Amino acid sequence: MKEKLIQEVSTAMAEVLTVEQMAQLNGVMLQVISRYTVTQDGEQLTVNAANNERLLELFLSAKQVEGCTSATIKYYQSTIRHLFDKMKKSVKDYTTEDIRAYLAVFQRKYKSSKVTIDNIRRIFSSFFAWLEEEDHIVKSPVRRIHKVKTGSQVKETLTDENIENLRDSCTEIRDLAIIDLLSSTGMRVGELVKLNREDINFNERECIVFGKGNKERIVYFNARAKLHLEQYLASRKDRNKALFVSLSKPHKRLEVSGVEVRLRKLGKAAKISRVHPHKFRRTLATMAIDRGMPVEQVQRLLGHVKIDTTMHYAMVNQTNVKLSHRKFIQ
Asked: pTM of the prediction?
């Protein structure tokens, strides 16, 4: 490559330099260029891409060892690769200004919310902090990019009347069992679909679920959920070990999307907007705190690592705030 570069310069200068000058120029170029590594632009991009990809794979492997779910790892991977595609340079050369510019352009182009932009920022922060800890870079360029102020929104929960209307909309005992299990346990939909028949302890009205990071915890269900679960399992003719299966043959394990679609359909029939599995989880957290359950116990029930997450889920009833104000503040 060095010889090719010298030859191209010599050819370009041949018409303006004498033979002696050309020989002198070639000698100087050979002496100077010998101290550097020379590659074509395309070759350098390929090298950068390969190095970036290797570091990304190492980072994702570290996250997997830490217990991140496959869905989280895929999200990390796609988010960081999008950055690589838009900024074709070595990760070791990324600057704070590069990351800020990327986030600004991303927000304008995709009309992303502040929550989305902050999620991307957190992923970049995790990646570059890991590069710094592993001595691949001197300092993370995301250090000086602060958390995006997203504000707070009051998220909807289901009322007792909503849940009763959803139950009335059910034409299948399976759907009734799903609604009762979600509303009484507050489990995640991903935890629900992983359950097997043998996981249910009907005597104690409890079951063990595997949450984020494959952490197990015990959740509890009420008498109504127990009754409808027993009726649903008694009606089953298949031998699938899964707790919930599709209604049609070959009765495969129900997937997350299947639960979401079914609940959306039931919500539409009951004329309730935006019915989804997570709404049951938020409703249980709100109801539990609203009725006096210590927030630490709600945290354990939901399987949250940080108590701040639990408080984020739970929306305290404003009427109770008013009554408490009258009771405690004279």
From this structure: 0.64
